[in-house]
Amino acid sequence: MTTSAVVVTFNRLLMLKEVIAALQNSTTKVDHIIVIDNNSRDDTVAYLTSLGSQIEYVRLGENLGGAGGFNRGVRYFMEKTNDEFVWLMDDDTVPLADTLTNLLKFADEKDQFGFLASDVRWVDGHRAKMNNPSPVNRARKIPEDSTTPEKLKNATFVSLLMPREIIAQMGLPITEFFIWGDDIEYTERAGRLASGYFVPQARVIHKMKSNVGSDVLTDSLDRLPRYFYSYRNKIYYGAKRSLMGHIRSNLRITLEFLRVLFKPGVDHRKERLQVVWSGIVAGHKFKPEIEFAEPKD
């Protein structure tokens, strides 16, 4: 069973070094380490270039966001390698020595799957709130001490294993998403072909600055523009769900808008409303095409 790891990076050299070292120290060999550089500063370029043949280095001419980076990374995996699986992660995702071993063990036990997601922890050992597993039964919360794999509705690109044959059928991540929701859309697309699973034995550490979720009500002003992509992308992938799923998605978005509109004490309310509304409007016009990799010669 052969695996390519794809790491998307942008100006986080110290963490990137830790991620690459962890991949190189994996108990189960990573056959190709593919680093997609979203046009980082020169120090990142110098370091990655110095690694030579230890990695596959792909530098982009501009920052295409996480979505564009994963699009290029999955394309490289499909067109430049013969590996069976691709293992996707951000540049602040640190796998343990046995993470890949446990993902592949589960993969070997399953006849078919769309994706496998790791148990993502923050530096204090608790679940990373940005990466809580989303079981098919949304009324259920997977306990932190769970040892039982479970079917998932979707997952994030913070340690995600996918088989080549599924990607060949479903295509690549959508570059135009730029940031936020590209992984939700991609794993839900995969899940329509074969079930995705949470593998609790396959842990990684997500080294975010703080263990908090995203919230347009409280986030800082400098981060507000990214919520445009969040709401635009939610409108797009919500429309791809079943009728009831689509209705529930639109209801959640409506409730979030009303919270921004009416909740007392919200600072810069006008700016927050504007970014949410502009994302919603753009989402109804957002119709990106799904790209497919060229078959490898």
Automatic annotation (TrEMBL):
Domain Glycosyltransferase 2-like residues, every copy: 4-165
Superkingdom, natural source: Bacteria
A GO MF term: glycosyltransferase activity
Pathway(s) the chain acts in: Cell wall biogenesis; cell wall polysaccharide biosynthesis
Keywords: Glycosyltransferase, Transferase
Transmembrane residue ranges: none
Keyword Cell division in annotation: no
Secretion signal, residue range per the UniProt entry: none
Keyword NADP attached: no
Family: Belongs to the glycosyltransferase 2 family.
Protein known as: Glycosyltransferase
